[in-house]
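Worked Example 4.2. Read the sequence first, then its structure tokens.
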Amino acid sequence: MERDGNAWRLTDAGSAHLTRAFPGRPVTVFLTPNGCALWGLAEEAASVIDHGSVRLLLTSPPYALTTKKRYGNEVGQDYVDWLCSIIERLMPVMESNGSLVINLGDAFIRKSPTVSLYQERAIIALQDRLGLHLCQKLHWHNTSALPVPSRWVGVERVRLKSAVETLWWLSPEDRPYADNRNILQPYSDRMLELIAKGGAARSKRPSGHACREGSFSVDNGGSIAPNLFTIANSGDQSYTRSCRAAGLPPHPARMPIELASRLIKFLSRPEEVVFDPFGGSGSTARAAESLGRKWITTEALREYVEGAKLRFADELLPAAA
């Protein structure tokens, strides 16, 4: 293993020993009262999940990076075709008014300080080929992001570090279930003062928007969240330590549990099903379990499934312990 910023990851020699699933029916590795972790290929999951049962498909697939990663990735048009083919095979498991959220990050073009348009091409293809609606672009600001790509940011100093990733929110319908009241943010001190004095005075802003007398006088329990989630990805050290203690490689690309939690609360209700076809370290599953949702994950590399299992030491059903 080798150190990479705040995380430990396998060297190329170590990655050769990861156990990849074969095509076919996924295998159940562990169960909890609310969920099921499968070892298998993402595109095979539709064979074992009830059609029309998933409220939220939340996932972070491998990005279209020009450098191959141990968890697998395509590049260019091959990536667009690959992602569309997997989503197409998984669409039958979703509720008609369910949501699909795909977390993607920027990829720089090989040997160039310019950014690939693979994300935009993939989303346009998902709309054109599968008829999916783009509900909104959400963004994740990782306040602990490393200064990458290192050549352009740290060496030549001609670019800013990439610290924002896009969460593409799509759905088969244009009005999927969502409720922003589930992720309200605390009011600012200024807003609390405004509510206490009975709201704003009548005014007209330079932008042309008018404010009527008494606006913002009602306490709704918090302010509406913006489409920017500011959450540090500091490495999830407890997960990393557990993997190392068990002799397992930690997954190198982990979504923060807090980010998964906010999306789950926004786009699903308790007891509904959340599905992550690229389960990775189990962040989506862990968040869903804690929030009282049903969950399913698939992951192609067996060692990563075993690492995710460590997140559920107190919830494993006896047969899977």
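Now turn to a second chain, presented in exactly the same format:
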Amino acid sequence: MVALALENLGARYGKVRIFEDISTDILRGGELTAVIGPNAAGKSTLFKRIAGLLKGEGVVHLSGTASDKAICYMPQDTGANAVLTVYESVLLAAKQGSTWKVDEDELKAIDRILKALSISDLAFRNLGELSGGQRQLVSIAQALVRNPEVLLMDEPTSALDLFRQVEVLHFMSDLAARSGMAVLIALHDLNHALRYCANTLVIADGRMAACGPTRDVITPDMLREVYRVDARIESCTLGRPMVIVDNAVN
């Protein structure tokens, strides 16, 4: 099974340091890992650094795979060509880096993914006709059709309504468990992190503030230090932990 670990990662844009010294224990396949932190903390930059799209200090350790294309990065904004249909865009993603010959198995895989994400009815609509949430679901399909072993998802639920957020996160959690895929997912909703993610990595002020099992990481002390809020972690009637924010801290 695939496993990922980060060792002293750093990244800069020109002379501006975005983050440094980010290290993790082994993040194993089959689980979701939340990447959280305030706005502009460097979450997107971290994903680009892990995916090899940005150079910097440190090492990304990847084991349990023989593929040099095991990591797939799903950005917030794909900048997809609006003249393509949804089906064409997903097919194009499937053929990235391979021959243009299309076989029946690939077409069946696209059909399965569109069905799983409940967007089969959008297959032959142009991307430019879609809402932001619909385009976000298409971006997820484009990532999944490439069969990654490590998937970096940069705020994949930000444009989705609550039903779709829960649907997508449940689907990704189940898919990771079944396939052994390691999924790192940038989230702003900390209750979603508590519900769906086994591990959580926190970035703040250009450094890693915490990393470990989600229930050990998302604590009142961390929320006060990183997010500047007074908050409690309470259990709902089903026994699940949830964040309740009382006040902002000036």
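Notes for the reader: The chain has a mean pLDDT of 92. The chain has two domains: 1-70+148-213, 80-146.
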